[in-house]
Specification:
alpha/beta, Rossmann fold, seven-stranded parallel beta sheet, two-stranded parallel sheet, 12 helices, globular
């Protein structure tokens, strides 16, 4: 059996990946800043530490064949660079020194930033827009440099918005609740596209990426785009409500969102409708996953609709 290391294995994506690895009979070690021995009931070896801890890195990498690097900082701005850039560099150096044979770096589609293209691919120039995106992009570049220099066989994945069970941030909670109350309205004509990805499909993509030699040195977008209208109607179906096809003019949506942004900044609130959210709910941009489909044969086997059904059921069970 192969011994693998998952950094950030106690996180949202990490839990799903670790579960898949255990199902395949892998010996799994997790490096994480937190401790939860009860989660895997001693089926996983847990090393406590972060990416700046050289002793923890050496311990975590001992006798490891494959590394899945999922750990990252997305909330604490003061830790973006130290974790997503320097932490990634530390792990890559330690992995190379330990003789790791495959390294999967989990990046983000966010590194591409804002662009005018309707179809986004791996060839789209990256113009990250904020400190988080810049830190993820720099970490990705460092990882791919290790592959280019022949120091470590690295593959990078750029997933789009990931959803699923066990999501601590509950990204879909507000949308589901709004639909359940009958309060959801499409902004403008409601012809937007969503670029979501079910977490179980992302875990499967990670496994395929480390198995294929042609993936070394490559970066792949992982996405499962769908029309907003279909996504909303599917949620309504799964929670058993009637979803109206009501619309509000785009200028009204932006006006309300702008007001909520001001209130959020002034009073530290978290009102749900923001300008960024209106942009996301009216965008027709599609992130293409054709490269990973053509080169590695990966297409989401669960898909956004079945993944959404499972996620809605999880929300209902966990209130």
């Amino acid at each position: 059996m192969r011994r693998v290391l998952v950094t950030g294995g106690l996180g949202f994506i990490g839990r799903h990946l670790v579960r898949r690895l255990l199902e395949q009979g892998m010996t799994v070690r997790v490096l994480d800043r937190y401790r939860d021995d009860a989660l895997w009931q001693s089926r996983v070896e847990l090393v406590m530490g972060d990416l700046s801890d050289e002793v923890a890195l050496r311990s975590a990498l001992r006798s490891v064949d494959t590394v899945f690097h999922l750990a990252g900082e997305k909330r604490d701005q003061s830790r973006f660079y130290s974790t997503n850039v320097e932490g990634t560099r530390n792990l890559l150096r330690a992995a190379a020194a330990a003789g790791v044979s495959r390294f999967l770096h989990l990046s983000s589609a966010g590194v591409i930033g804002a662009c005018g293209q309707q179809v986004v691919t791996e060839e789209t120039p990256c113009e990250p827009q904020n400190d988080y995106e810049r830190s993820k992009y720099e970490g990705e570049r460092i990882a791919l440099d290790f592959a280019a220099w022949g120091e470590l066989p690295v593959t990078a994945l750029r997933p789009t918005n990931v959803f699923g069970e066990d999501d601590p941030e509950q990204h879909l909670a507000t949308l589901i609740a709004t639909i359940q109350r009958g309060a959801f309205r499409f902004a403008g004509h409601g012809e937007a596209m969503l670029n979501y990805l079910y977490v179980g499909d992302l875990a499967a993509a990670c496994l395929i990426a480390v198995e294929r030699e042609e993936a070394v040195g490559q970066v792949y977008l992982v996405a499962d785009p769908c029309p907003l209208r279909e996504f909303v109607f599917a949620i309504a179906e799964f929670i058993g409500v009637d979803c109206s096809q009501g619309h509000i003019p785009l200028w009204v949506a932006y006006g309300v969102a702008w007001s909520m942004d001001l209130l959020n900044r002034a009073f530290g609130l978290s009102l749900p409708l923001t300008v960024d959210k209106v942009r996301a709910l009216t965008s027709k941009k599609v992130y293409s996953a054709e490269k990973i489909a053509q080169e590695l044969g990966f297409r989401p086997s669960i898909g956004w609709r079945e993944g959404l059904r499972r996620t809605v059921a999880w929300y209902e069970q966990n209130s």
